[in-house]
Specification:
mainly alpha; elongated; single chain; 256 residues; 0% strand
Length: 256
């Protein structure tokens, strides 16, 4: 069975020796926007895997036009090695935040963390959507290292992406050791009312997760008051939730 044109193009772009004539042919091919051309564009970007090839890809992109090649290429399934190499390319050509965000979104989670550590500071404010999509669509055990890095970095936009993904997924599959750290980071940046209180009130979320979230609100009287305010739905809550609600109210009353 014949390979799809895009896959053939990717192989050509990644392996074909490039002299001046070939580069000129590729420039014309890129203009066509065909599936084969898209594959070639992807293959060209995947050439960057070490210092020598990074320099070669930078020179090639300067001739072909970085934006033209990038828009046509497909980074889905990019390997860790290629993602690292491409990050070095973007840094060397001083690429804009959109390209960095695309790479962070496509890279394996552990490599995305490595990229964010070394990326220009203004990039961190532009990667929220890509990070949220990664946390929602990929297994939590794979994205956990990236979450830990973002907690350590303490940047608002990436942390909001973590919190929104936790809320959207209702914490399904998230580590019971990681969730408290996420909660504390969100609270430290003033996102408890927006993200944590609604998560605790979500009766479709796992009871253990909700209890972790409620425990994180200790020491935040206003948030704890809002989370434990009596609601008629409380009558059908699991016993563990009802017990914790009563205990929290008693604690708040004693603090007045």
């Amino acid at each position: 069975q014949a390979l799809p044109a895009r896959e053939v193009g990717r192989i050509v772009g990644q392996t074909q020796p490039l002299d001046a004539e070939k580069v000129q042919q590729i420039a014309g091919l890129i203009e066509s926007g065909s599936d084969f051309a898209a594959g070639v564009a992807s293959g060209l970007l995947l050439r960057a895997v070490d210092a020598r090839t990074v320099d070669g890809v930078c020179a090639l992109l300067q001739r072909l036009g970085l934006q033209r090649v990038w828009l046509l290429a497909d980074l889905d399934g990019i390997t860790a090695k290629s993602a690292k190499g491409l990050a070095l390319v973007l840094k060397k050509v001083d690429a804009g935040p959109t390209l960095w965000a695309d790479l962070v979104g496509a890279a394996p989670p552990a490599i995305a963390a490595w990229i964010l550590r070394g990326s220009p500071p203004h990039i961190l404010s532009r990667v929220g959507g890509q990070l949220r999509a990664k946390f929602v669509s990929q297994p939590p055990e794979e994205t956990a290292p990236l979450v830990r890095v973002l907690i350590t970095m303490g940047e608002v936009v990436p942390l909001r992406a973590v919190g929104e993904a936790l809320r959207e997924t209702r914490g399904a599959g998230w580590s019971g050791q990681l969730v408290p750290a996420v909660c504390q980071a969100l609270l430290a940046h003033g996102m408890g009312e927006e993200l944590l209180v609604p998560l605790f009130l979500d009766r479709e979320a796992d009871t253990k997760l909700r209890l972790l979230v409620l425990r994180s609100l200790d020491g935040h009287a206003e948030l704890l008051t809002e989370a434990t305010r009596f609601r008629f739905g409380e009558l059908v809550e699991p016993k563990q939730i009802q017990v914790r609600l009563k205990a929290a109210r008693k604690k708040l009353k004693g603090q007045r």
